[in-house]
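#data-curation
PF: Archiving a pair of folding outputs for the training set. Convention for this channel: one message per protein, sequence first, structure tokens after, nothing in between. First:
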Amino acid sequence: MKFDILTIFPDIFDSYLGESFIKKAQEKKILEINLRDIRQFSNDVRKSVDDRPYGGGLGMVLKAEPILKTLGSFLKLELKGSKIKIASLVKKNKTKIILFTPRGKQFNQKMAYRFSKLDRLVMVCGRYEGIDERVAKNIADIEVSVGPYDLMGGELPAMMVIESIARLIPGVLGKPEFLKERISKEKGFIEGPQYTRPEVFYPGEFVKKAGNLSSKAKAWRVPKALLSGNHKEIAKWREDRQKDILQ
């Protein structure tokens, strides 16, 4: 699957794309992630891509022209009425352009699952006061928000979307079983609490030296059901915990 990220700060992604499963998936050619620097398609020497908003207001707004030029540098586009569309796409070649904005549709596991079936996902990252509304109306296929809050730009949301989609693509995590136990029948996400060694942990031993906790502090124990060795009992415990979370 291909990801294209349109941004004015491509260096933000250096560390993220060069670590862990995302790095390995690129090396295996399972994922292709392209950083598209919008500033490279500016019209002036200063590489400016923003301007003051019409009607007044605080901050600067990213212009539509350099964004459209950036898209045109790697996609074949056509104009249908006032809408920009990706041209000459066969049915098997599925591509979507998304724009990150606080007012967009809430990103969730089901959306990640739908996106994972695409061949290519193009993500436009805003900055400053926002992006010229004509990008949302005439270029983007969907506006997406990663939560009911505002961020400084779309770069962090892009990383979140890539990671949530990438782990659904066969070969990225290595073992398909990792997905099955966390994805519901409706393609949503479910996860219960997890424990590891030791079976009994005494926090007082670690903080007593600082004088902040009495040695009488209670031990932290792994639930008995997980230690039983009874697969049905363990499955029941996990199912109950997931229900508790969903309530």
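PF: Second:
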Amino acid sequence: MNRNIFRSLTVLAAGVAFAACGETDLIPSELNEAEASDLAGAVMLATFSATGEQPAPAPGGPAAAPYTYDASVESDVQCPMGGLVAVTADVLVEGDTESDAVEVDYSMTQVHDACVVVSENDRRFTLWGNPGLELDVHVWSDGAGVVEWGGSVVGAVDWVTDGRDGTCEVALEFGARVEAQESLDAELAGMVCGFQVSRNLTVG
């Protein structure tokens, strides 16, 4: 039922490439516009991955259609090859046991700790929360393989790439869709590192 959403998110995020960090002699710098767009994609890839790893809280009481319940979750999501994302979230779930349709609303904080993400253009970023990202995310599933979600990401991250490092503010809105656990198609728009960003993102 509602576990399908979280399984779908995890499968979608499986296309995210991770690598171990080990940079030295970092040079403080700023990203150019293309690199800022890559960082926006990397932040969203990490966001989908960390969100997808959250356990689906189970409703209390006897199963019945429809149902509503809420819960708080807190976890450290491991990046596959080093680093993690610390996640805290309040979750509201509304669903129907007959159709398996479900909607999930998150109010979430994600704080990266040396989490390494490779963008679609093969640029590797190591991310730290500075202070972190605040997310409002709405996820909807029809219970038959279609999952849609949208929301906003606001905050700031420290980044390292190609021997350079810096800090960027992030303010993005996004929408995404997947059918039958195939590729994720997302649209991002907003500001990253002082640049206006508007781009598509495909995972899987």
